[in-house]
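Appendix B. Chain record.
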Amino acid sequence: MSSPLTNPAGPYRIVIAGGGTAGWMAAAAFARFFRRGADIRLVESEAIGTVGVGEATIPQIRLFNDNLGVDEADFVRRTQGTFKLGIDFVDWVEPGSRYFHGFGSLGRGLGILPFYQYWLRYHQEGGTLGLWEFAVNSIAARENRFGHLPSHVNGQPTGLGYAYHFDASLYARFLRRIAEVNGVRRTEGKIGSVAVDGESGFIDALVMEDGERIEGDLFIDCSGFRGLIIEQTLASGYEDWSHYLPCDRALAIPCARVDPLLPYTRSTAREAGWQWRIGLQHRTGNGYVYCSDHISDDEAAATLLANLDGEPLAAPNPLRFLAGKRRQVWKKNCVALGLSAGFLEPLESTSIHLIQSGIARLLMLFPRHRFEEADIAEFNAQTDFEWEAVRDFILLHYRLNRREGELWRRCREVELPASLAHKIELFRSRGAIVRYNQELFNEISWLQVMWGQGLRPRDHHPLADQPTAQELAQLVDSASRQSRREADLLPLHADFIGSSCAAP
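Structure tokens predicted for this chain:
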């Protein structure tokens, strides 16, 4: 089955309902790739606020910015941004525990095995160097260093993976400038209703409160949690994952900047959830994600305010959510992005990436003259897989804990999705980690969280026994020295920003 475009002879009309990060990311990307033959219009209201006081990202956002032709220093400067080497997890296993989920590489493999399999043998034989001594990101993070490495150090290729922290509202403004320069038209105002074709069920137009009709071929729903088109109009349905991820509320608050300027996000486990800390150039973003079954809103606010590093700059901003996603993120001629598509708590900073990947997926399956059911089904299947894989990765942190408290016991006892249960058992056997269908988080990410949360394999891969004891010692020593050399080349994070991309 397929449905023709309503205006096949004219320019392709893309209408984006809602601004914010999701709306302007979509507008900027479509304007960049559809340089001709498309009419792109974004509808938003200044009277409707956006979510977020600060955003942490993962390295894939660099590809998105590169595709827009963005200069990194200018972007960081205009968004009051900083750099991110990974996430510091504090007290997640139990009070006093700590580990780092860093981007980038970890050691150098030998033959067909990744380095960590040799390290598992080294560790099981009594080796004393910890896992994170072979990751330049981890070493640099604990010393508050950041910079751009040369391509090779001591004859070896370098690998410093990084992302950004930035002010979400400033990023949306930055993208708006790019989009409008490239021809996107913005309409200010509130949407009064959505006009639907009575025969096909496709969206015909957005009807503004002042009566203006904004017609289109493809509608992008970036209206936030309410899902104005995808849910309120098209009734896509919602897949509830709160039995896996029971946190359902958050409080967000900015506080004054505190030095040193950390090149990583911090996530600290609390009684009924966890607290984030994101350092920007002009302030620090903070928030408490929690489960309302186990703590009151007032108690959560008191906990958050008592654990700020600096003076609060506003009152806590409350958010309510339900973990999960739309059953059909693309339905009829509407594609949902951002909060309209679903919500997964920002524990691993995936919110913006899921917008980015949704845009990329849509571009690859973009309709030409007709909306084909096969394209829509493929888009939704890929989206389901990606969201479920991210859900599993977040759930992994909660499942592997030894903390006291009702929430933490609840998370230890939940029946796992078969996909996650299988990954845990694979790692328990001999440290095996399998990545399916180019899922978002790679083997090194799974390794760091599994090991950091206290999961230990019973054995290692048999091929890791092939090097002699002396060869293994040389491999481990060389890897740790290389990581140390790379970290030593990096300036302090604050100094790098001050010299290259400080906001005025």
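Further analysis of this model is presented in Appendix C.
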